[in-house]
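Reading a protein record of the kind used here takes only a little practice. The record below shows the convention in full:
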Amino acid sequence: MSRLKRFLYNASLLTLTSLAMRAVSLGFGIWLSNRVGPEAIGLFTLISGVYGFALTLATSGISLAVTRMVAEALGHEDHGRVRAAMRRCLSYALFFGSLSMVLLLTLAEPIGLHWLGDTRTVIPLRLMSSTLPLIALCSALNGYFTAVRRVVKNAASQMLEQALKIGVTVFLIISVLPGGIENACIALVLGGVVSELFSFFVMVSMFLIDKKRHISKSGKEANGKEITRNLLGIALPVALSAYVRSALLSVEHALIPIGLKKSGSSHERALAAYGTLSGMALPIVTFPMALISSFAGMTVPELSDCLARGHQNRVRYIAGRVWQFSLLFSIGVSGILICFSGELGAVLYSSSEAGGYISLLAPLIPIMYLDHTTDALLKGLGQQLYSMTVNIVDAAASTLLVWLLVPHYGIAGYIFVIIAMEIVNFGLSAVRMLNLSGMKPRLVCWVLKPTLCIIGSTSITRLVFSRLPLSFPTPLTLTIHIAASALIYLFLLRLIRAFDAEDREWLKSIINRSA
């Protein structure tokens, strides 16, 4: 297999794995929400915000550092340098993973009592701390397998880990720890602990086998001080920026239920509202983004290559195509979710409140998805630092607005923060990308036409199926309604030439390159 084909094979494998895992995770989340209720989901989301920062500290940019250092050493066929790099990277991961574990274990009680304001969070936080060294070491090993282009090992490990996590969690909730909000959170945490332990042993075993087969013991040992400087030079800048953003997000998530209580809600109602919005509605809104993320990621290497060769016209063409397909896709998703938001809430969660939140967030989908693809384009244009800065500013402003607005306006204030900051983030990224690429958006073809098509397709679907003797909504009839709307939408796009033969050929060429 050529180097290019191997790269495309690995990229496709990661894309399919990510999409499959996201679908399974969404299905599990729906089952869990119906089983334990929105208050438990809200409490676990609250705990996860704190755990997210601990996880960022534990990994501290190690995966990227391993990938770059090992890939560079293998490029020079310097196996001695690979061995030295892995020893220091694993030591780095173990140090930060252990440090994060000790801090979370020590601070679990004050964080749970004084910051999160709920004693039920203390035990889950302490249990979560045990996974941090394992995750840090696995992150380093993931970086190694990416560098040596054997990502099938990563994919297999991740899928096994998720399957075990879901299986253990379901067993605990049904058989061992039934009933109670705290027990539900403990079951979720224990499922994660068991799966991380399993994943660690699998990854270590695969690494030892791979190293024995592919990394020879010959070669001069590299300079340890040079390796350490290189490691710190790659990992620490990534880690520091991640610390800032993760800390801000953790503070933001902690402030939301506090603000909801100040607005007049009880603690239980605040957690339930937070859980319904963040743990039930948002996953439905963001799930289709997995497809557009994969599509945008496929164009990044091509964009980088064009930029390096000075092919500015090609850069402009690719940027325009990415925006065009992102808008065609996201406007269709947005229209379908707006039209069927109430039915989705009823069928998936038996919750009109979840359906209401989906309808409020669905109009934001074109901006949300386009912002995501624009970030990918900026990476292809070498603007990672700018994207990182925008994301940090976004997190800081969101935290401030949550602190100011949620105590006065409740959950409506939080929804406003989501919408406002998504628009600001997209605006900052879009202006930068448009200036660098020289691309000019075609609003009529990319926005107006698909908007009219999705309005027409959902209206036709509603009208036709309302005349048929079908019980609605049920899982089957809802699926039929959504599928029919999507097919009519695609037909109308072709009918009014919003998606023509040239567009199909370009999209096919991108997919073929990743097949």
